[in-house]
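Re: weekly structure request thread

Next one in the queue (257 aa):
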Amino acid sequence: MKYEEYPRLGTTQPVKRRFPPSRPLRELVNEVNGTLPSSLQNSGVSYEAVDWFLMDRLYDPRRAGSKLADMIVWRQRFEAKTGNVDTSRERRTQKGYFHEHCDVLGRPVIVAVASRHNVFFRNLVESQRLCIDVLDAAIGSLPPLPSSSEESPIDGVPQGKPEGQVSQLLGVFDLRGLTPACIDFEFITFLIEVIYKYYPQRLGQVLLVAPPPVVFEAAWEVIRPNLGRHANVVRFVTLAELRAEYFTPETIPREFR
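Done, posted below.
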């Protein structure tokens, strides 16, 4: 398969988050919290996180509560395993980071540079911890939800919250210089599972920048089936397209200037 034959998708628009027309959000959030096992009741999950899981599960409190409970349990185990892990070495490589500027749609941006990762020299737990730290930092930069006084829905859209307000991230993966040693299937499996099970719909679009056809084709054949329906958020772009469609000269990540 030639590079030009990879699927190509246009830029996505900010997600339009709608509340159900019949019930206030606060009531639904309380119902979700009520579905959690008593051991998870005081886990410190934010109002915004509960709201997000509600949206992901189409405002079904029981389904949202079940998925939220899985996330809380995973998070507790992950923190127990990696809470004291030193990621300073990983950070110095700049293999993955939260970019200081948003894209042209206002989405927070996370950048990963594949050529800076080597499966033979990385520490998997350190890489996983850095990954979660970067995701959390980017999500934490998103605009806050409206206050309780703004929750009354009108035609399904909350007052005081602009329709189409940005609430997703853009992931930019620099695949230039990719070699077989950079392709870490163990870490990729972790990343896919975490994003789609515990950070649902947080990545609005993933850009794969200039993948080398020969090296990447074999890896993509393994990775793509694991993405399932979520593969539709992936777009293959050239460096020129990234510069022209997603950033201004002042805001583009330094690797792509």
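The helical segments are 25-35, 47-56, 61-82, 88-93, 124-140, 185-198, 213-227, 239-245. Confidence is low (pLDDT under 50) at residues 1-12, 147-163.
Next request, please.
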